## 1
Amino acid sequence: MSAHDEILEPRPEGVLGRFRAFRENRPHLFLLVLMMLVAFFMMDPRTWVVLTISGLAMGAMVFLMASGMTLTFGLMNVLNLAHGAFISLGAFAGATVLVHWLDASAGQSSLLANLAAVVPALGFALAVAGLVGLLFERLVIKPVYGDHLKQILVTVGGSIILMELIHVIWGPNEIPVPRPDALTGAFLVPESWPVIGGVALEKYRLIAVILGLAVYGMMTWVIEHTRTGILIRAGVEDQEMVEVHGYRIRLLFLGVFVAGSALAGLGGAMWAMYREIITAHMGDELMISVIVVIILGGLGSIKGCFYGAVLVGLINLYVGYLEPRLAAVATVGLMVGVLMWRPQGLIPVIKV
Amino acid sequence: MSDPILSLTGVRADIDQYHILHGVDLRVPKGELTVLLGRNGAGKSTTLRTIMGLTTVTGGQVRFRGEDITGQPTPRIARQGIAFVPENMGIFSLLTVRENMVLAAVSGPMDEQRLTWIFELFPPLKKFWNRPAGNLSGGQKQMLAIARAVIEPRELLLVDEPTKGLAPAIINDLAGAFEQLKEQQVSILLVEQNFNFSRRLGQSVAVMNDGGVVYAGQMAELADNEDLQHELLGLGLGAHQ
């Protein structure tokens, strides 16, 4: 192979060179490791384990909520500020199923009976948010396609309508969400384990982490290995050329929008069970984290979104423990810091 | 002469408030390579984009295989068998070479035989098959762009300035590829500034100026008539090696 047709990448030299290469080529992993290390040396290892798992759980849920928005923005440059309403909608839909099911099977605390409540609750949240997403795209987004200012106005309006509809259907008050017995409580790490022996890990958080990882794995697989995934990535880069090849990008976008709304609903339902209390405006509150995550990760990037969510989850928990007064600043501070370092986000996909 | 595979009659198109095409009349004969020549800004690229439905037609008619395709959405035009290679090549740089090709093979898995043929035409594509297309050189990107256009049999190729910015050796490779496509009776409409490349490949020719076609005929005639070249293209193209 002659020199000129091999694609050359500079080879890192020495420890420092390799460190620099790692920092520049894998900024998401670099930040993650850095944050976890710094936190590790600032607290007791047992506390660190608990906070890390909680942070990962929060990250997993925020990822579910944010993944759809990053794709709709990346793919079609559509700013959907009503995304938070789908989070709320999913939470209420999920809670409704949980309340009914648990009433019906009151007193049953077997794992099977509990799963029979949780799975339909999450499924219902997914379906309701997805279906409303379909209507929302056709009625609200489609007419303002290509115009950011109108998108902002119309989707904020749409968001208010959706949240008021939640008030109409479920009432204006906060609703307590029962968490099934099988998901409450904690796993105790056996005392005999070194360092972290005796630490109590909340079951629900572990489940949230597993579910988040599963969805991330599935999405990554779809995006990396299927034809639809190739089309989505191609569309993020150049819509016009996707159409030139004979694909109707509007249909692809509709599909992504519906899937994204459904995932926001799933995230909302999981958040509901996590917090055990929901309001119609919970989506709005979570939108701040969601927006930070998609900007931090790089607009349009699923991988960036995942790592962004995990970083936001971790920093929230770590800072909340170390200096509670700074917890609110930490998320936005993280974003500002990352943007100063890498203005395109951690894993840039589209040229802004 | 048989019916043209593509014909434009009085096609007008605007970009923003500017009138770019003022009634373009153009015939692309079936199974031939037609070259579209003209100065910068004459409307050549806009003509190709208008055929693909990427620029809105404000008047006139575009017919493909005798059917009116004026104003149809781009994907529908593409599905009827027209492939378009734009001036910037439109490579998906974050996708691998393979993924670019998979996407271009609209109707399903790629045909092995055709792929082998493409690899023979453009060996670098095989070599960099699983690399991001963004890492390819300019010439390799052009190869990929043309390969995408022909991975499935298409009736008409629209190619916008394939030789732009490429080294002579690569231009030669591309010419070879076009020769083979000509042998396969693929109809091609090629926008070009490089007159030697055009003269070598073109069978028919049309010259555009100021948003309209000012000359249409056989390439041989134009190639032999230097006065006509001066008049139409405003350049001593014979000396423009």
## 2
Amino acid sequence: MNNTVIDKNAHQPLFLWKHLNKLRWLSLTTVFAMLVLIPFLHVYQTFVSAHTYDLLSVSEKQIFDTMEWLSSPFISDPEEQLDALKGNTWSGSFGGVQLSDPLAVLGQIVSSQAFYWPFILTALIPVVLTVFFGRFFCGWICPATFLYELNSNLGVLLRKSGLHIGNRRFDRRLKYLVLAIGLVVAVVSGSVAFAAIYPPAVIGREIYYAIALGGFGSGIVFFLLTLLLDLLVTRRGFCRYLCPGGALYSLLGRFRLLRIKRIVESCNDCAKCTAVCEFGLDPLHDQFGQECNNCTACIAVCPTEAMTFYFSPRDIANQGPGHLGRKYRQQNTLINQAEKTIDDK
Amino acid sequence: MRRRSFLQRLVYSTSVVAAGAIPFALSRLLAPAELLLARRHLRPPGALKNDGAFVAACIGCGLCGEVCPPRCIQFHRRDGGTQVNTPYINPEEKACTLCGKCTEVCPTDALNPVEREKVDMGVAQIDRSACYPWVDRGICGACVSICPLGDQGIDFKQWNQYQPVIQQGCVGCGLCVEVCPHPSLPIGIVGRSQGRVMGHTVS
């Protein structure tokens, strides 16, 4: 027992990792709030540029006043300076930096069959970050993830109240098929077909439509269907099995450098990490693979602080049962007994 | 076992294709037919000439709409088939002011910056059987006074007559359509290259 305690101290994860999950929720909430705020700021901008405060209706005046109150501490000329913050996670310009989803770039190259370098380079930063951090977009930024995780929390509540919630498993490689089919559809139809079925793009757009253009588009129906799929058939089903962007990010992040590892010396086989994993991965048996999005939920839930980050282009092989668990102890006592009998002989 | 897994995969892939077809099917179903008429369906300034190339280049991010000061750029939200989520301008509701912000912000080459005199969204056409001055029902001149290009775009026939005549410099921004006081809108934007004559009915 003494040995294990010493080992545990040697492999203590940084205290910060345990709180990263809260930071992640903060990040998701911020992105979603920005997606709601940007259309309102745009509406405010159009009111300012039209100089029509007296002609606005009561609710429009409320929007104007709220947005003026929010933005006036930071800017003096809303007509020009608010242009610094535009767009959504599909493509946007943030303080002069243009950023696009790699899937948008891929879809646009395929559908227009041309390379337009100014646009392709806007995906450079996300691609480089994905190569280092894996599928981090899915866990930390995606505005659809925000709603999907709330949806799975709703599923947990429903299950507690005794309702049947689907928890089927399919083949994870299905999403690569969706990516391939989407590329073929983009070539055949001559339009970026992913934009219609990629939840973050759909969410960003539909929020803008609802706020600035007076109503949701047809994409919201598709998004509600994916919410139902997640609730009734399989948890986080769209992200795990169908999302073309998730497929692209998984491929890019296959040899990511930042990975989560189980410290086998302090693990007690409680399997909370496997239960909490939104993507249905199996941290308890060291199976992360290219689908892990470094969301750190397993680090946060681990009661023995047996999860940590490490740098490596590959996952480590299955390390066997945790050293604080019953299985390991039984094995070890058997081995000890065998050694004892050998010694006795 | 192999046949079973093959069948499973077949079912999965069919359902994937079906799921992808849902938004398109919905957009087809919900499409009001008259929205696709050329006179109510202008592309933003600086758009690629070939509409197929425009749809292929546009990723549907909505940035052009998000910077538009008069909020005239709308999107095919529930209609348009493969054109779903692409931008358009309906000058009867809100017309373009040729500020060019959308061409600067577009991340792809769907909208390209152009000088405001070189913009080609179409060309205005007047139905002289309905326009008030042309049928001697009074004086108007709203279209001439709003034109952002001055007398290059639209001008009076003679100095003392209020009968408007489209000039060579018209770029088809549609502001004249927006301000036209006639309920049946005898002025409209038509495609320049197609040589289409505006369909117009007096209501």
